[in-house]
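Lecture notes, structural biology module. Today: joint structure prediction for complexes of six components.
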Amino acid sequence: MSLLDLILSRAAPVPSPEEFGTYLFVGPHPDDIEIGAGATAAKLAAAGKKITFLICTDGRYGDSHTELKGDDLVLRRKEEAVASAKALGVTDVRFLPYLDGVGYGLDELRRSVAEVIAEVQPEVLFCPDPDVDSECHPDHLNVGRVCKDLAFCASHAGLMSGMGLPAAPLKAVAFYMTARPNRYVITSPALLKLQLDSIFLCHETQFPEGTADRKQIPLYLKLRSRLFGLRKLRAAAEGFRVLGRTQMHCMPEAGR
Amino acid sequence: MSLLDLILSRAAPVPSPEEFGTYLFVGPHPDDIEIGAGATAAKLAAAGKKITFLICTDGRYGDSHTELKGDDLVLRRKEEAVASAKALGVTDVRFLPYLDGVGYGLDELRRSVAEVIAEVQPEVLFCPDPDVDSECHPDHLNVGRVCKDLAFCASHAGLMSGMGLPAAPLKAVAFYMTARPNRYVITSPALLKLQLDSIFLCHETQFPEGTADRKQIPLYLKLRSRLFGLRKLRAAAEGFRVLGRTQMHCMPEAGR
Amino acid sequence: MSLLDLILSRAAPVPSPEEFGTYLFVGPHPDDIEIGAGATAAKLAAAGKKITFLICTDGRYGDSHTELKGDDLVLRRKEEAVASAKALGVTDVRFLPYLDGVGYGLDELRRSVAEVIAEVQPEVLFCPDPDVDSECHPDHLNVGRVCKDLAFCASHAGLMSGMGLPAAPLKAVAFYMTARPNRYVITSPALLKLQLDSIFLCHETQFPEGTADRKQIPLYLKLRSRLFGLRKLRAAAEGFRVLGRTQMHCMPEAGR
Amino acid sequence: MSLLDLILSRAAPVPSPEEFGTYLFVGPHPDDIEIGAGATAAKLAAAGKKITFLICTDGRYGDSHTELKGDDLVLRRKEEAVASAKALGVTDVRFLPYLDGVGYGLDELRRSVAEVIAEVQPEVLFCPDPDVDSECHPDHLNVGRVCKDLAFCASHAGLMSGMGLPAAPLKAVAFYMTARPNRYVITSPALLKLQLDSIFLCHETQFPEGTADRKQIPLYLKLRSRLFGLRKLRAAAEGFRVLGRTQMHCMPEAGR
Amino acid sequence: MSLLDLILSRAAPVPSPEEFGTYLFVGPHPDDIEIGAGATAAKLAAAGKKITFLICTDGRYGDSHTELKGDDLVLRRKEEAVASAKALGVTDVRFLPYLDGVGYGLDELRRSVAEVIAEVQPEVLFCPDPDVDSECHPDHLNVGRVCKDLAFCASHAGLMSGMGLPAAPLKAVAFYMTARPNRYVITSPALLKLQLDSIFLCHETQFPEGTADRKQIPLYLKLRSRLFGLRKLRAAAEGFRVLGRTQMHCMPEAGR
Amino acid sequence: MSLLDLILSRAAPVPSPEEFGTYLFVGPHPDDIEIGAGATAAKLAAAGKKITFLICTDGRYGDSHTELKGDDLVLRRKEEAVASAKALGVTDVRFLPYLDGVGYGLDELRRSVAEVIAEVQPEVLFCPDPDVDSECHPDHLNVGRVCKDLAFCASHAGLMSGMGLPAAPLKAVAFYMTARPNRYVITSPALLKLQLDSIFLCHETQFPEGTADRKQIPLYLKLRSRLFGLRKLRAAAEGFRVLGRTQMHCMPEAGR
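The predicted structure, tokenised, for the full assembly:
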């Protein structure tokens, strides 16, 4: 870290993702929020925070391990997502109608997410990190980019008025599935178990018994959780790349 | 720096941003050029260089601190931008008609900037760095990306002819508001003061007395200027990520 | 490398770009594949692999060093590309009809490349690295982004069915012209010579005797080849950033 | 790692500390070998390797937690060391007669260790790393330096003949208590438990119930073991800085 | 910083050099303490801490800029040292009788410093960092090594009893003139001025008007002070490499 | 490199090892100077510089590959060293009478080297780098440490007068066999060949045909020479860690 980075990080510290009251978690498909931030969502829900999940595409092509296809699968995945959120303690789950696999224009996706932001009035957005050079799935990159844009724009009355929407009190964005976490939410083995159950017990069309993912994803999440936990001298943690309002604009050093 | 990077940086050195005769500075909003490169613009103007400022959006949503709204604000901000440029010694200030907050398509923005390049015939472009992972403002990213594209394309007669435009003698792009400066322009405390005055005295709709920005931005700019100055054993400097023609294409090592 | 990166790199190793049977090399213009991966293509061809070259734009604006213009040049460059591929041992060369210099929409480019993937059924894609911060040529960035997207999507039956196409057995993407190679293909001075001949003898409209590129590109390629070769304790090698299926999605650590 | 380091590490790989037949572990005080390399010693002993422990000082000043003083403590600590080694599977334990706390000259210490090397004829030495900038205990630095010197000299007939001693077949030195491990011996939770028992149950004059060390050292050793284990995708490991004959002399790159 | 380093630095934080009550500053020559830690000494003195300065050699060869030679110079430098300490607020200044330029054996130097430690009973030692690879002056390396050794040994009753001396309550060592500071003492421009005056006004035999040092040392100290100050968001600071009792022994990670 | 390091390296640049007139190369054994700095010595000799070689031990234990033993070998190695130096263009070769393998006290070695310095009056010393953590040979570490000490002390009239010797105009020390070169002397393939011939043709008792060293050392030296050459955009170079007078004392940042 250069001296300039160090000074800025001390003069304008990145906010903690736990210090807010109203949260909007945005996921590209019905199971991504759980994988990327499930333990944190459960912790926040247990702490009485107001939480909304927004799922942007219908996940209709997540059909490798299920007999269900098309609209039938879409319907089932909605049920799975609602049940999974409930397991984490979240009851407000919303769905955008977009088709899995880039079945939308970026402008309409942006407008749809902006509308939910305008209604939910969150203080912080959780979304996939769009600046991960190895991520190839276009829905992840698109949702991440749109949310990053709105994390800044949606708190400006003027910029939102251009879309005919009211501003929201957004103060931070927390990118999940990130390669450069800068804030860690202490969780616990119990919260990690809750997260894994929400993924594997609830999203059974995606992760039936016997699939490789059923073994590898828990291993990966446990390993990450334990290593991030060690950083905080605790048993478990989730890591996020967080930008507060100060970091979001004209402070390039925050990007390193 | 790897050995390959080192060899290439010595074999094909990045040009100095001061070695050219004709300059085009491109800003997303009416005050960005001053914040990102104001001291350098003033130094170059004082040295008799030919300089044009191009402002891409009308900044109509920069209305947090002013009673003026909409077209009235747009008009006032144009006046502020002209006065501010003048304070820096720059009299050729041009405006694109696009609405603040992504009020344009990327293709039309690209074409409009290409037209100005074709007319001004600059040797170097100054623009925001589009490769800053913390920058969330879409106008900054869009203007940066379009300029980066044209920094390469606009010097190729063929590529410009596709748009019915003549080529320009572009030899370099200098990204301001960057996290990875590789060239430093020595300025001075006097030039820094000129820059700060151009920002705070001229753009009074944006930075009236008593706002937080009025305190924080000068602190940030002074700190940066002093630290970059120290690298050159001088009192003040501005830093840019510069790519010459050799670095712009098929030399991936220049991106590290 | 963080402990997490290290563990993941050992638990889920990036595949070798040589372990496949069917290859699709995608180039923005008629000479890019040769420059970016020519020695590797020749090695794979000599090993009896099934190889297709796909050239996305017609290169009509590569007319700085030739009297030929427009469609005449396009025709000649096709002949050059076919001859050059043949010199490397590759006979299946395909062309998309797009104009040089962003003469296409991203959606149509994506669909066209997807169609070729559906037909060729490659196990690995070679394409320009779209995550190189110094690359300014829009065709390189566009082709790289589209291929990165399809490297993931084209192996999912559902995602391809949305385009009415069959899935392909894609297992990896290998980015050439990259700043962060993670896999090295051992070549040889003879293969390097073959590569240079394919570039300079075959693409004579681009690199006639006496041009600066005619001297600088060979120097650059030789230097890279020798330095990458040293990493493998050999005389020559080409380097690529390779992502296997595990690295392409939801494993952000693979992006560092 | 520079390219030169990389090439050398591949051309002349550091040997594995497990590939030898005859081992000499040298400790400054009666409990240091167990703390620094106990699990590895137990693994090697179980594998039937020939192992000798050599303890250089009498540890008479390790009297903070015991009523025993002076020669009485020295006697007891010898018994503890023998019992502890036995718990690890090592029966050949030797003692130099030097007083704790620099109660020797460096020359006589060097000669004494050389005599044991000449007799035991080890292929590898284990000793404290003398190049740890935070280590302040002079006995640790002295023993480390003497062993590092002899790791090289004791295999040269000429150099040993100057002391009237025969050469030994030394091929490597493995520094324990090191900040820069480059080789990891996979152990196991059972071996770690054996190590901790050898320390805490056998050396009871040093670590009686209720002392701070009794809690902190196991935590530290478990944490290290787990993190080093993760590097090898295993549950536990010990880390050492190993130099083979090639690395010991005139290959400065091996020191990074 | 590796994960292990990070965990240890949080689990066992390095103490602040300001948290103690009784201080012993050790200098190789009569002006080194002032150069290495003068502002901190003045701050601590002003805070009412008990401070002793110990000067190990007589500085008789610091005669480049003075007519005084030999014992005359020794006498004068003692007076300068006493005056300089007084300017910083320190009245207890002690002198060892050793000749400048390695005019002592390491064992007698160690014993002499141990005697002062036994008498003064400090909680922390300040001394030159002996692990600076560019430092060539043997007196600096010797004094640093002896103090580093005693920082550990002098708090152990047993180890001191071997020298017939009582133990001291040493809890930390703070190395000055270090390349790897890990703790920063916030000072101020006034304290920096006090430091520079103590050096240049008091040690006039060493730094008469017109010498190069008279210009360069203040520049160096001001620059360091300002840059270290910036790390703490203050105008001035001094940096030290501090080891607490936990870091001094068997915790190699503290050496990185 | 930290900002402080950068500023200091620019404000007080390390001198070039080629800028002096009188050179003293010090080697632990009769062949070390050639291996560590032979090409540079030859280049300097060809440029008419005044050069002395000083060999500290008699190398009597370098008898692995020769029938000669003891004093007979000592005699032969002297002849080899003289012939080898002559091949490099150096005729002033001096020998200290010390036995190979620490056959000296550090104080007498220091005094002997100081005497040669006093007589030769060099401006720069070349010697082995004593701060290489992998070097285990005590003669290399001892000679390096003594020379590092004298590089500073021998230019101070006072410090030398304590030994009854006149001062020398020493301005720099250049460490060979170093892991952290900071200055590179451009050589050439011809100079490299001269160096290799001086080693392998002249020191035939050490490197007879058919030994492993006869193959490995040339490979290592060629590789180093080529890689260091690449840094200077040349075919060959030797690298040294150089300290000028400014860097030798009280400038800890020069040690990084």
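Point to remember: The interface with chain B takes residues 3-4, 7-8, 11, 131, 148-149, 151-153, 156-159, 161-162, 173, 243, 247-256 of chain A (CB under 8 Å).
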